[in-house]
């Protein structure tokens, strides 16, 4: 791989000339580039590829495909956690699997530049392989699933008609990252954020007999009560043939194309654990001041150059993902690596599991290293940029995840987590402008910090989402901290005269989950439950404030104002 700088439009040229269904999307300019095969999959017919605005591309689709393709790109734009993701979407009569890698982010954490590949899945073919399709119904009020006999059999559960299971039982069958993503998708469905009121996802479930199976799960929202609350979701469960998880890329040629695409501007590494060899690209070794003769193709070549302060946490996070999919299939971390001249540079590392064996252990990983150091004299400033959110001056998403992993390594850890989300932020942005919305986020961050100890960690995870880490704080004490936070927000809203800053909260502790990442997912679920129950009250409070001071009529009819 050459180290000569590539032209700015190299990505576009590569995508347009690819035989595989590749795409690139610059969210900031809304410019999207689709290879001919990718355009064919989304259009449902022959095409010559596409370069132009994403919105214009969607407008030109057939009516039965427009909304679902917009929904697909909306899901990509909202994602803020993973450096790599996989989303399934019904488009017309097709099921499209969209795989994406985030190359650049906005300061708020949401993707700015993405590249990826598309695949058409044949749900009917999967059904034909197994000859069985399970049916399920979810009672929103009881948070309870009812399964038919086929569904119970597929999940290796007792063979009975109308088997009932609490929501947590199904979540326990998912790994941590999958549970977090599926919960977010399910919550958007319940909050009517999915325009067609339905979803299709492929999931890997850990069954009671110890096996792991791939399933295609679909769901549709089928009713609301008089107050507008969702009542039931019903759907199907279909097992995909084979016990081993699907490879992350659909074909060898597509995999090679993506490796070339992703590795062009950064240092690429590719770890084959079956042969215990790692390929480091020339750009990878050059950014550290080495060449191939002085940088071996072994795991130790990377490990031994990690900064001693960060090495234990980084190695643990990577080994967790390698050993089990319950910790997810991707990660993103920043750390320091020793260069050939003895100095250290800051590296942003993004990695993705490409394959696992039948026991769930990763057999191949691929990743990117980006040198995020500018000059030696700016290192402290760069570290501060990595650790802090520039808008709110609380900690960043990257820092929060690093701190979460560090605390998770401690024996007998006593840690509590509060998940927080600002209600009505979209309403404020639309009617009062983004400057007011940003001011609202800054106020929320200030109020959160005023209620906490200096040893606690407040971070902005993206958009209006915040999280609080409370080390050496059990659940009982954390509940008192949360009540103090609520009191601070109530006092501000009653006496400031400014736009109300209303937050939803969810609390969890290390004693409730096997890992802190799973405790965070639990706190997120509890926060979303509170947000769903309070959205009408908070929406009307903000609506009244805007109408009183701005002499305008505010509509809450649009589904995007549900949060």
UniProtKB/TrEMBL annotation:
Q: Which SUPFAM superfamilies match?
A: Nucleotide cyclase, PYP-like sensor domain (PAS domain)
Q: Which Gene3D superfamilies match?
A: 3.30.70.270, PAS domain
The PAC domain is annotated at 331-384
User: Known InterPro entries for this protein?
Assistant: Biofilm_reg_signaling, GGDEF_dom, Nucleotide_cyclase, PAC, PAS, PAS-assoc_C, PAS-like_dom_sf, PAS_fold_3
GGDEF domain span: 413-547
What name goes with this protein? Diguanylate cyclase
The organism encoding this protein is: Desulfovibrio piger
Specify the taxonomic lineage. Answer: Bacteria, Pseudomonadati, Thermodesulfobacteriota, Desulfovibrionia, Desulfovibrionales
